[in-house]
Amino acid sequence: MFGYYMELAVRSLRRSKALTALMILAVALGIGASITTLTVLHVLSGDPLPGRSGSVFMPQMDPRDKERDDHPDELPTQVTWADGMNLLHAARARRQALMAAGSTPVQSDDLAIDPFIVPARYTTADFFAMFGVPFRYGQGWSATDDESRTRVAVIGGELNDRLFRGENSVGRTLHVDGADLRIVGVLAPWRAVPHFYDLNSGNYSVGEEVFVPLGTARAAKLKRNGGIECWGNKSSDEADMETANCVWLQFWVQLDDPTTVASYRRFLDGYVHEQVALGRFERPAVSALPNVMQFLDQQRVVPSDVRLQVWLALGFFAVCLVNTVGLMLAKFMRRAGEVSVRRALGASRRSVFAQLLVEAGVIGLAGGVGGLGVAVLGLAVVRMQPGASAELAHLDLTMLGATFVISIAAAIAAGLIPAWRTCRIAPALQLKSQ
Amino acid sequence: MLTDVRPIVSTLRRHRLTATLLVLQIALTCAIVCNAIFLIGDRVSWMLTPSGIAEGDLMRITVSDIGPRRDLHARVETDLATLRAIPGVQAVTVGNSLPFGGNAWNSGLKLDRSQQSPSATVAMFYGESLVETLGTRLVAGRVFRPQEYSWVDDLVAGKATSSHVAMVTSDLANRLFPGESAIGREVFVGGEPARVVGVLERLPAARVGAREDANNTLVMPWRMVPAYGGGYFVRARHGEAARVLKDAVAALKRAEPRRVVVEARLYSDIRGRYFATDRAMTVLLAAVSVALLVVTALGIVGLASFWVAQRRRQIGVRRALGASRTAILRYFQTENFLLASMGIVLGMALAYGINLLLMRQYELPRLPWTYLPVGAIVLWTLGQAAVLAPALRAASVPPVVATRG
């Protein structure tokens, strides 16, 4: 029966080509626009650490003085050197890492290659294991390397391609900013989207290519950059950052179950109270421990324009759908005569209804295919836009499936009212008027 | 024309669902297009925000040294001399940020040292002769004197003290001292006092949060160094910026081959990047608006064609009974006008609703009422244009159709 309905549908659609094309085009444009914008939203609001974001937390506190009361209700998202080191050495979480952003010139042994600047991260040993960073060669450094400020580095795959043509470079030397570091590991491609562990370097900034133990980076005076907030009149010269009244480091911990989360919360609260009692913290003892997704939500990472675009596309889709319903209704009603004959010859209301719905479904399917084309085109245009986030806009399987489900559901929903109206035509009336 | 209204209304009643759908489509289109045009206007006016600097002649070159950095100040002076020697260079300095340039340096500003919370968060600009290099207009007071400048790295390390003077923009001056002259007044920036010696026409921040705070900025008498994130700001003779940029990069590389040029851009390029997302959004809004209008127009054509085909016999009868072609044409035009009007009325209400939502989400101003008549005219015109071809086809139905079964 379905095959017969399909044949009828195709035949009927062929009869009015322009109208069919118009309906398919409207559905395709509406779906294409919606899928494009939804994909961008889906990518940008994604989970940077799938499977582990729920167990990675950012301890927050407020070490600032009373003088500058800029955002009393907003806790800094960074810590001072003193607090970072205290929490790191307390080692109360399963894993913890203290880090800062840098950018460092890299020189190649090949003199034909000009020195170039790459984004760097100065961090501690647990960074790789806590964030599940994959290695292609070698491994990260140890906590001992952190303490002894060993001159080692982990490099990204892209830098390894550029400097060593993708060979295993473990054991070789990396020349950065006047310091020589021994490479202990090379990463497989990895990028956290959003760049959650340090939003100061851009919500969707590209991954770092050089990773150096924090202590080593400080000892070798590697260039630091990134967000910094200072208070008071103490020197905030680069050489004095260990004692400066500035928050400039990010601190993250891994806590695997609710019990450890609760006990870490108590520990953090105790630490903050202790600092207030010691007179180091001047503001009220407040602390927080959001996990990755809570933190991203708090920081409103997804650009508001992206949400606006989704609403715009959905509005457009709604107009396209209304348009299609209207046209389909007109088309079905015009076939009142044909429907009456079929009804008079014994076709049940149900079978007429089913047949018309199949016709609507065919339009939906064609619109979905067209919509997919529009979305692929739309995403290609998005990727041509400037900005670190644009290049991330790729269609994944979820969105691909969603396209077809949405298009067929939309077309059938759009066909429902017209089909129902048409199958209720009383056969006698129509036949008589002919 | 008006005589047609009654028969039209009774016909539309019989096609209530189709008519309702068309009205709904026109209403949605009207609401979305009104808001989209409003958003476009909002973005465009933002993108055209004047910077008050010599945009066409400026460029920024950022370099990064490799290895330990010694003799910071001497190096800066050498580089500046190198740049000044390039033909076509009018002025050059090391500055911390440019209007809409990306990296902002913010600080809290107080009028009284003991004040609990700051009166404003201001973006700070510094660099020797920055105002003169950028071409910012001074509207009151004076610019800094040469002896008032001190090196920013010495200040940060506590090796020097500031000369306690500052220049503010007229926007900030009016905000801090409404109705009074700001010259000679004292402000506290990051806890340090500074006397206002000059008022600038405008100098928008490098990164703007709320647009009305764009000119919450001041200039400090600090000499910037590249190692602190400063860049060389070069102003070229008019029309020579592109060549000067190329020469300047080459000269800086020649002076010290062991360094990396991180950025070398004309100001127009820097500004273009800052507004890139706004430009993309504007294009998107415009494209969606056009697509909406096209889809709606095609929808009207499609529906009208169906109605004409469906009513061929009735039209024939009317023609046979003496109705002129014009009368038939008018009938369909009036019908479309009525439907469009209903859509527009509903669309206006919807437009305001959407605007209210946007106001809450995006801190947008209220939709000015002038958008409504413009939107109405656009949709009426669209409807009439779309219905013309089917209506003409209806008008050409010969009376003889009435006699055919």
From TrEMBL, chain A:
Residues 54-73 are annotated as: Disordered. Residues 20-263 form the MacB-like periplasmic core domain. Residues 313-427 form the ABC3 transporter permease C-terminal domain. InterPro entries: ABC3_permease_C, MacB_PCD, Macrolide_Exporter_MacB. The chain crosses the membrane at residues 21-44, 308-330, 351-377, 397-420. It is found in: Cell membrane. The keyword Manganese does not apply. Keywords: Cell membrane, Membrane, Transmembrane, Transmembrane helix. Residues 62-73 have a biased composition (Basic and acidic residues). Its main location: membrane. It is a multi-pass membrane protein. The keyword Transmembrane applies. It holds the Pfam family FtsX. PANTHER family: ABC-TYPE MACROLIDE FAMILY EXPORT SYSTEM PERMEASE COMPONENT 2, MEMBRANE COMPONENT OF TRANSPORTER-RELATED. This is FtsX-like permease family protein. It comes from Luteibacter jiangsuensis. The lineage of its organism: Bacteria, Pseudomonadati, Pseudomonadota, Gammaproteobacteria, Lysobacterales.
TrEMBL record, chain B:
Its main location: membrane. It is a multi-pass membrane protein. It is found in: Cell membrane. This is FtsX-like permease family protein. It comes from Luteibacter jiangsuensis. Keywords: Cell membrane, Membrane, Transmembrane, Transmembrane helix. The chain crosses the membrane at residues 21-41, 283-309, 337-358, 370-389. Residues 287-399 form the ABC3 transporter permease C-terminal domain. The keyword Membrane applies. Residues 36-251 form the MacB-like periplasmic core domain. InterPro entries: ABC3_permease_C, MacB_PCD, Macrolide_Exporter_MacB.
